[in-house]
Amino acid sequence: MFRKGQCRTGSTHLDEGKFPIAITVDLTNEWSCFVELIHPTRDEREGDRLITDRIPLSWTEPTYGGRRAWFLCPRTARRTTKLFLPNGGWHFLSRQAYGLGYACQREDRFSRLQRRAAMLNRQLGGKGWDTWDKPPDKPKWMRWRTYEEKYERWEQSVGRANEEFLIYASRLLGRL
């Protein structure tokens, strides 16, 4: 879609069309390629103030050939594939610059075990989170041996999740 020497502009809307972003991708100079994003702040106190972010691009050549583009975070200068603009944020920056973590990094032991049981439930043909503690029937396409192995792992995960829940509940009731 993009080639050396081109400069393209466009726009997009996020948050169900409420957050407009004007985008310019400039590849005219091989040594100073950038993406420019013009958008309002996500800080409600600032009203309709427009912010212009100019994000440099970096290129690498993977071992399998071709070229790969990276954003260079304006704050950390790290290569990244994604930029974030959290609520209250003013600029598009990397996850590390904002100190954002993955959801699984903030989970307690019970939540991790519950997520594992839900993943195994989906592998068994279940719906996942809605039925993480109820085993689904064997899917037609799955071999019995595979189903039994996954079922056993699922059963262990649910058992450990239930044990962890009982420990948490007893601690909570002990405080009351």
Give a summary of the structure in a few sentences.
The protein is α+β, with helices and mostly antiparallel strands. It is built from 3 helices and 6 strands.
General description of the model:
With 176 residues, this protein is of the alpha+beta class. The protein folds into two domains: 7-98, no CATH class; 104-175, no CATH class. 29% of the residues lie in helices and 23% in strands. The chain has three helices and six strands, in the order ββββββααα. It has helices at 95-98, 109-123, 144-175; strands spanning 7-14, 19-26, 34-40, 50-60, 68-72, 79-80. It has a six-stranded antiparallel β-sheet with strand order 1-2-3-4-5-6, with no helix packed on it. α2 packs antiparallel against α3 (144-175). The model has no long low-confidence stretch (mean pLDDT 86).
Order of helices and strands: EEEEEEHHH
Strand order of the largest sheet: 1-2-3-4-5-6
Helix content: 25-40%
Content of β-strand = 15-25%
Question: What's the structural blueprint in terms of helices and strands?
Answer:
Elements: E1 7-14, E2 19-26, E3 34-40, E4 50-60, E5 68-72, E6 79-80, H1 95-98, H2 109-123, H3 144-175
Helix pairs in contact: 2-3
For the structure shown, list the relevant keywords.
176 residues; 6-stranded antiparallel beta sheet; 3 helices; 29% helix; elongated; alpha+beta
